[in-house]
Prior knowledge:
The chain is of the alpha/beta class. The chain has ten helices and 14 strands.
Amino acid sequence: MNYRKYLAAMVLSALASDVLAQQPGPGQPSPGMRMDFSSVTIKTTDLGHRTYELEGQGGNITVAVADDGVIMVDSEFAPLHDKIKAAISAITDKPVRYLIDTHFHTDHSGGNAAFAADGAVIVAQENVRTRLASGTHGMMGNTTPPAPPAALPTKTFADAMTLRLKGREAQLHHVPPAHTDGDSYVYFADADVLATGDLVSFGRYPYIDLINGGNLKGMIVGVDVLLKQADDGTRVVPGHGPVAGKAELAAYRALLQTARERMEKLIVAGKTEEEAVAAKPFADFDAQLGVNEQASRTFIVSVYRSLKT
C-alpha cells in the first residue's frame, strides 16, 4: 500500500472510531461522511508559560515552546499538517523538535510522517510503535494498515521518559492498559499543564478501544494517576473536549466509577449484553452529554465487556 492510500485508510479508521465515541455535531463526522479537512480551522489557546493548546479536527494538541525548539503532543490527522504548522509558526519561529504520540490512534498520530520530514523526532511508548507498525482493527470493523517507516516513532520508552530542550522539560509517563495498551500522559511542570491523550475526554463518552488493549478498569486507574499528578491550578488538556482543571477531572472519574458500579449490578443480576443495552443504565449521562443512541450503545457495550473479561 502506498503512502497516499495509507493516509486515506487511517483517516477513515479514525473517523469510524470518532463516530462510535460521540454524537455527530458541528464539525464532527457522521457515519458514511468523508471529512472535508479544507474547512477545518486551528484554534489556539494560550495556557501560559509558552504553552498552548491547538484544536482542529481530531485529538487536541499541546505545544510547549523552548528556547531552541518546540515539544509537541499529538498531531491530529495527516491532512492538517500544513494548518497545524502554520498555527505553530504564529506562536514561534522555532522548529518542532519532538512530537509525542499519546497513543496510536490516527486522529492523534496522523501527522507523524509529515512532521518527521520537517525534522521532528517522533516519541511514544513502545506499544504505540508496535501497533502502528503492525496495523490495527477497530470496533466497527474498520482497519488501519501498517504505517510506513516514516510514520513510526524512532524514540520509545517502556514506563517513563523525560524530554528536554533549552528551558523546557516534558515528563512522559505510561499507564497500564486503559484507552489502549500504549497510553501516556505528558506533564509540563513549569507551566503546570497536563496533556492526557484519550485517557480523558470532556463533554463526551470516552472511546475505550477494547480490541487494542483498552479497558474501563484501566481507565479509572489511569485517571487516578492523573488526579495525583494534578493540583488545583493544573490546566488539563484532554484528548477531546475543552481545557479544564482538576475539578472536571474528578467529575470525569466519578462518571467512570458510577458507570462501573451500575454495570456490575447488571452483570451480577445475570443480564446479557443486549439486556444491559436495553436497560439504558446511563440514560442520565446520555442526557447530560447530549450523545446519540450509537454513542450510548457503544459506551454501554464497552463497559459491559470490560467488566466481563
